[in-house]
Design goal:
Distance between the termini: 33 Å
Strand content: 25-35%
Number of strands: 10
Bound molecules: adenosine-5'-triphosphate
Mean pLDDT: 93
Largest sheet: 6 strands, mixed
Number of helices: 11
Shape: globular
Radius of gyration: 17 Å
Order of helices and strands: EEEHEEHEHHHHHEHEHEEHH
């Protein structure tokens, strides 16, 4: 479904990603592991059209070339991003945030159904639909961010460190809900530093180290991989 080949990203002279490949099959959950600065966010940004890869890169979704597609057209193609830091509109209500997520053509027809699905996933959002998003807890704001991304009815949902800054119990609940989203048929591409919980959810993963892929395999294989332990020494070890 989603396939990246020969993906390199540079910021000036700095090489953030060097010749990376990756694939996510239909409905699959895949995690990208890596320490700070490994290039994980850059990879999601390249798929979202937010940074332009170096010439020669191939990014395709169901065979369609995505390089050069502008960021605001990406949701229509079926790709949604929950960025690091969430990117919600803090001055708007929960409901208004969700409505803004439904601007793509793909989303409009099924807007009500999608909203019901999101309120079913996150009953808290239904209870708080008129609350100003900026007054909510970190975990609740993450729900708003995921809800907003889901409003575009994506085929693949990409999440940039969704567990960041959240208490362990909140992270546990969040990953349970990600499991339900996956069960509903949406593919997930997850960037995480929380190795254990993300490998419990994902079926496969990739390990990035300063812009290069240094490991890939099933979740079980990665759990045993000394490079994974090494990359996270001091973080999760
Ligand atoms: P983190 O978890 O810290 O966000 P990451 O794995 O997501 O790390 P990236 O954010 O993709 O990594 O960054 C990869 C490298 O590219 C880092 O060295 C970072 O400093 C650099 N970088 C990222 N964005 C820019 C930018 N806009 N301009 C210059 N350098 C950048």
């Amino acid at each position: 479904m989603l396939s990246l080949e020969k993906l390199s990203v540079r910021y000036g002279k700095h090489v953030a990603l060097d010749n990376v490949h990756l694939r996510v099959d239909k409905g699959e959950t895949v995690v990208i592991l890596g320490a700070n600065g490994a290039g994980k966010s850059s990879l999601l940004k390249a798929v979202s059209g937010l940074v332009r890869p170096e010439p020669g890169a191939r990014i395709t979704l169901n065979g369609r070339d995505m390089v050069g597609v502008s960021p605001h057209q990406i949701p229509d193609a079926g790709i949604a991003l929950v960025p690091e830091g969430r990117g919600i509109f803090v001055a708007l209500t929960v409901e208004e945030n969700l409505s803004l997520g439904a601007y793509s053509k793909r989303a409009r027809a099924g807007e009500r159904q999608q909203r019901d699905f999101i309120f079913d996933l996150f009953p808290r959002l239904a209870e708080r639909r008129r609350q100003i998003a900026g007054t909510m807890s970190g975990g609740e704001q993450q729900m708003v961010a995921i809800g907003r991304a889901l409003m575009s009815n994506p085929e693949i949902l990409m999440l940039d460190e969704p567990s960041l800054g959240l208490a362990p119990v909140v992270v546990g609940e969040l990953f349970e809900t990600l499991g339900r989203i996956s069960t509903s048929g949406v593919a997930l591409l997850l960037v995480e530093q929380n190795v254990k919980i993300s490998l419990d959810l994902a079926s496969r993963g990739y390990l990035l180290e300063v812009g290069r892929l240094v490991g890939e395999g099933t979740a079980d294989e990665l759990q045993q991989d000394p490079a994974v332990q090494h990359a996270f020494l001091g973080l999760n070890a």
